Amino acid sequence: MSTAHTGSTKSGEAWRNWAGNVTSRPVREVTPASVEELTAAVRRAAEDGLKVKAVGTGHSFTAAAATDGVLIRPQLLTGIRTIDRENGTVTVEAGTPLKRLNLALAREGLSLTNMGDIMEQTVSGATSTGTHGTGRDSASIAAQIKGLELVTASGEVLTCSEKENPDVFAAARIGIGALGIVTAITFAVEPIFLLTAREEPMPFDRVLADFDELHAENEHFEFYWFPHTGNCNTKRNNRSAGPEAPVSRISGFVEDELLSNGLFQVVNSIGRAAPATIPAIAKISSKALSARTYTDIPYKVFTSPRRVRFVEMEYAVPRAALVETLRELKTMVDRSNLRISFPVEVRTAPADDIALSTASDRDTAYIAVHMYKGTPYQRYFTAAEQIFTAHEGRPHWGKVHTREAAYFAEVYPRFAEFTALRDRLDPDRLFGNGYLRRVLGD
Q: pTM score, two decimals?
């Protein structure tokens, strides 16, 4: 049964996230074509006594968007509303995929300053969970937000910025869907620029010995460590005067498609079927990617295709604790009988001023552990999480973790500020679900 004025359909069909590890069965789905339709859907859900959640592309590994009430799909709320070149901002509808935003900005000669390596997510889903790339001076996508528009539990359309409703702005940039449904985001943008990427293999011990130097000397530094080996692959991205020298089509196919997706899929499938082969495969995989340097516009350097499905846990630790944390992780893996076919990813971010940002008030390093989809991950993730939490780690809101509200109250100085704002904006927990109950308390 359809209801034309709200784009609503009866559901009962299961919703699954990208990794397939979270499922929910909403009573109905709504695909609003305007903010007015979205507001009507929120009000109707409240009248019917149903919870309501918006869902992006499902790239979160947590149940942040899961609901048995009303599921809002924002795919019709897309596109750029306005570009303000004088103030260096762009306002974009919440359901716009990052890849469409990046393409549209590039056509206008503009770019975000920093971004993560996946660009399938919607802008609202990516920012609400704290998606980030790596940067010495430039922070997460949410830290580039200059203004937000959201529908609150009362059905009000609220706008916020540093000057308008600043208390909401301080929290809602990374709101995990707890404060309302984001309908539009204003980002800071700048004239498009070139980045030179330098990728090269490097021994694990050398990366850790030189980490502070590598971080200080590069605008964007990250590396991947291959468990069961002493090998890493490093990536340094720095602004460049040019000229453009993009990855050749052949090299791009071999490195990004064949090795990073096609062959990687095959070796992970072999590893899942025969875990004993993983250490030998890891030694080969860690040496398969060769050194290369290329120069291109930002989104072509920052982002890469990710077609191999996996489950992920990522923790943010104080940057000063990174080397020790990573050494402990390697020791744990070496001493265990775990077999891990996915590299461990390490990135950084400067401190920011967002209440529930993983980099809130502290310079941060991120350590992400992954397991191939369909492979048991609990033992590895549990052991890794014990190491991360011993260093006051903060889990990514959209990735697997077992932490609860009492833990977050300890590791986030502004946790109480966020929960007080939630009490004010959503006292009846219209936007609540099991995940938010666990991480924010009731």
A: 0.93
